[in-house]
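Slide 14.
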Amino acid sequence: MKILSKVRISLLLNFFVFAILLNTVGIVISQVIVDYQTSRITAASLEAYKDLSIVIVSFLLASYVPKFGYKRSMIFGLLAVTLASVLVAAVRGFWVAPILYAVVGSSFALMKISVYSTVGLITSDQKEHAGLMNTLEGTFMVGSLTGPLLFSLMIGWSHWNNTYWLIASLSALALVLMLVTDVEESAVHQEANRSNFFEMFRLMKYPMVWVFVVCAFLYVMIEQSFGTWLPTFNREIFSLSQAQSASFLSIYAGSIALSRFLTASLLKRFSWLLILLAYLGGALILTLFVLSQTRNPVTNTYANWYEAPTLAFVFSLVGFFLGPIYPTICSIVLSKLEKIHHSSMTGLLIIFSALGGTSGSLIIGIVSQKLNVHNAFLFPVVPITLLALMLIPYRKLSDRFGETHQANEQNKTIN
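Slide 15: predicted structure.
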């Protein structure tokens, strides 16, 4: 039990560190434009370095992670981002930023594949698996909140580059903890040699996997639609300043983290399908309510963020109704598959999540450009509704797959 506890703490710290690195790229973009007189287009390319490296590494290496080892992959990822963070902290110049985000993206792909796969090794049933997944993703959102706070404090006190000394220290701590933590991987070692590049595509023969990737695509489309464009909505509809709009994004991220921690305990008592449908219903009702009350933009300006309209606070809480969906649907498919397939399945998850996030942000941007941001926020209603409908066959297919798989395993044992 002590070993399991240490493993869980290590996984949580790993996710916390990467959340800080991944969710402060906007701050770094803003800083390099000012400090290094970098063009906006060049600075914006940092997002591409991060996202493309995640997708490419997930696509090429996901099936090989079991061979290399989950612990080794996590150690390699932590070592790489520790060195990259030290480089950014020690060297002033734009050229280190693309290196940082290429390393961060590549390392995160290995980390997420390894963490998700390790969860399957240290949990005993579906409810425990879903609970730990929600705790992990909740911790990720806490890291997303902590990153901007660290940068804001360091910018006011010293220079933004020096933030990476703190990040490097956190990453080094996670690395040391990972080095002294035992991860029991014998359950996958015997079959690791048969994992190859095509393993990811073989999973697509299962209807459950097809429905899952659609659900994952729709969820990230919804979350990114709100996460990317909520500051613009707050600025144009509620007349908040840029700084105030950004602060409300913290409320959005915080509400996601809160609901994930809460749902980790709820899943032990109630059906995951009923919980997720209730959350999606709440997100749909809240979105339609706020949009119905904000047909006419607010014209007042506010000196302080806490003086903002109540609806601005209410709309930011939409994250509470979205938070648990992603880790729960991921947990369902992973807990049904053999442990050897977890890395390949996570690779598929990362790829379709990236596609969904990009699509959601792009569609909201196009609609808001042609119409307005208020009407553009009617779009998330569509994927919210579709996701609710998709969860029903996902439940049936996953249960059927689990029963069939269990029966096959029993037959193998008898024979």
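Speaker note: The chain has a mean pLDDT of 84.
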